Amino acid sequence: MMDFSFDMSAWEALSYREKNRELYRKQKRMLDTFLEHGAITRLQHEQHEQSLRTLAQGMGERS
């Protein structure tokens, strides 16, 4: 997994599918961090996880 926060050339070199995969992973990490710091409840986290899985399936990806 790459960190694209400072390397736009690496980001631009990715395919559309790779960019979607990285955006998915970033969203997942953010949700995990929110849960870890108490910003969301376990139930909210599980609901968001389900939404992410549905999104990934719609994109033809495995979560």
Q: What do these coordinates show?
A:
The chain is mostly helical. The chain has a domain at 37-63. The protein is 70% helix and 0% strand. The protein is built from three helices and no strands. The protein has helices at residues 8-13, 16-36, 42-58. The radius of gyration is 13 Å and the shape is flat.
Average pLDDT confidence is 85
Helix fraction, binned, reads 55-70%
Q: Sum up the overall morphology in one term.
A: flat
Task: Point out poorly predicted stretches.
Answer: none
The H/E string reads HHH
Which structural class should the secondary elements be placed in? mainly alpha
Strand content: under 5%
Distance between the terminal alpha carbons, to the nearest Å? 14 Å
Q: Please compute the radius of gyration using only Cα atoms.
A: 13 Å
Give the beta-strand count. 0
Helical stretch count?
Answer: 3
Q: What is the makeup of the main sheet? A: none
Q: How do the strands and helices of this protein lay out in sequence?
A:
Elements: H1 8-13, H2 16-36, H3 42-58
